[in-house]
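Minutes, project check-in
Item: structure for the 159-residue chain
Input as provided by the requester:
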Amino acid sequence: ASGAVMAIMVFMAAYAPHTEVRILRWNLKLWHIVAFFVVWDLVKFPTSGNAGGLLVHFGGALFGYFYARQLLKGKDIGSWFESFMDGVANIFKTRKAKPFKKVHRNKTTQSQSQRSKEKVGKSDHQKRIDAILDKIGKSGYESLSKAEKDFLFKAGKND
């Protein structure tokens, strides 16, 4: 955790170095405070019994500085991590349940013979429409007679 704190401190000092922090009666620039802690770690390094911890501090400081410099250039090197965490968070988001689809049925029942007559009638009707459309495809709309145009217009309205 201390390496992450050092990374954040160095990031802030590199990103906004002239920001002032008031400590007791004095206004100190942020980079002076951070430089003090980094130099302190450098001085303690040879005699410290916790060399691993100090190396983590230096790694955090390097990462914080590098991140701030890249961000000032317009490159957000942490955007992939933000996208990854958004994806993880989306897994746990609750979604609104979609409403059931309604099925509408015709309440009037027809006999089998009535249904078969309609199918035959529809198929003759469809055959005539297909013939007119074939004629349009071969010789154009202008070649249709007035009756064919009227039939096609009415068929389009009904469907």
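Outcome recorded: Residues 112-139 form the longest helix (28 residues).
No further action items on this chain.
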